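tool=predict chain=A
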Amino acid sequence: MSMLEYNEIVERKYIVLDGQPYEVITSHVFRKQQRKPVNATKLKNLITGKVTEYSFHVSEKVPEAEIDTREIKYLYANKDEYWFCIPTEPSKRFSFKFDEIGSRVKLIKTNTIISQLMFGDKTTGFKFPAMVELKVTEAPPNIKGDSATGGNKVVIVETGATIDAPLFVNEGDIIRINTETGEYKDRVGK
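tool=predict ok
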């Protein structure tokens, strides 16, 4: 494990503090009057999800967390469980609860490969594709004159997720969605 100086603790780095893995969300190195510099950070605990503030002083060093990633393949959902397997070993199946994996799982199709982030043998998170293209399966019809003011309507995509989309999106359209925000980006085609 490499040690990080106080000023090397920057955004998107993973560190170990009190035996727990943290992701650095923000960092700001500053000097108060005649004192030594301080790095004020916001840290997200990768296991609990709790965000805390911590200030690192010049003399402090912390170990960089070794976060392993492994590719996993999404198979199917059953009630509140989402089932995955190792792509090269389909017989090794395992599941995660909805609150463990998060709402982004509703935007991915079956057989999609995602990354599982691990600290030791504990799962600390998942990396999803940034954008997905999904077919609209249900969209309420437009009413004449609706589009003059703009606006949105709720559509249902092939994975069962509901998305706010512009009024011109119809059933059968393929739309691009940002998985991080769950927002409509653009219409790709039919």
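The longest helix spans residues 98-101. Residues 177 and 184 are 5 Å apart (CA to CA).
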